[in-house]
Amino acid sequence: MDNDAYILLxxxxxxxxxxxxxxxxxxxxxxxxxxxxxxxxxxQPWGFESNDIFLNQALLVNTSLDAxxxxxxxxxxxxxxxxxxxGKGYESRTIDIDxxxxxxxxxxxxxxxxxxxxxxxxxxxxxPMAELxxxxxxPVLNKTMTELKQCCPDRHKVLVFEEQHVGxxxx
Length: 171
Prior knowledge:
Largest sheet: 6 strands, antiparallel
Structural class: alpha+beta
CATH architecture: 2-Layer Sandwich
Mean pLDDT: 88
Low-confidence stretches: none
Helix content: 25-40%
Radius of gyration: 15 Å
Number of helices: 4
């Protein structure tokens, strides 16, 4: 059976664009076909202080894996790309790969919660998702990505990333 997974890439350390490129290559090889991708977005850290600005990107991946197997593959990709987890909450990272949605399923296990439980509170997730799938309906909140973006309480700036862009430092 083919499954559609919406995945969010995030990073604020190292060579972010190159890391995303490597992550997409690995996802396509090990998880499934990348059907579409949002623009890259430049975002401020959420939930912790850092001078390092994030890049984020949403992907739609068609996979034959089930959600648990997909998570296992994505965690291995994170590790391969230098992700170190210390278990102390939000922190800077070389790569973060989250499953936002898996088909229209609601999954709650000890290792995976889908839809992502806090995505509707985060502009850095909603902006790329609203670009990629504006009419996708959140299976728990029963609102589209566009509707969730419009009512999101998060006031952090999210800008389309451009090479010559000065950045969020001045915002």
